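Title: Prediction job returns without error message
Component: structure pipeline
Severity: low
Priority: P3
Assignee: unassigned

Description:
Job completed but the reporter wants confirmation the result is attached to the right record. Sequence as submitted:
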Amino acid sequence: MIIRTAAALLLGLFAGGVVFTSLAPSLRSLPGPAYVRYWQALNIDYGRVTPVLLLTCVALLLTTCVMSYQRGWLVFGLSAASLLLLAATVVLTVTQLEPLNQLATSWNADQLPADWADIRQRWWTLHMVRTAMAVLAFAALLIAQAVDRQGSETLHSADPARQPARVSQ
């Protein structure tokens, strides 16, 4: 299904981005001013791209769920799980992470508030939850794709019209 493939590409792009951030321990060891400058620069780029990416992916996943309903309960359930996990990711991002991003954007990197490290730790904890949800959503969608493809191949192999013609000798 082309729509599910497009959703998987966008979801994979997002999941890969958040995983990459999670796998960069050197970021967390930066001194405060350098870390906050990095955070502020990242907020600009992600702030422009992430809403379009995630909302497009939600729309594609919603369409995938509708179209997957007739593909069997496993394919539908995995597609729905992917959609719900992505929706939870969006809610977490908008309600928890984005306010912290906006707070960090307002800081003067050379005069950080006393609790900046606590706020950074809260962001990292929430980011790890978001990362887990995004990776699980991506995995569920990939499994749905594989199950659906396997089911289609099984159906096609059982269809006599799709069997190669046998030549008698």
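Comment from assignee: result matches the submitted record. The chain has one domain: 2-150.
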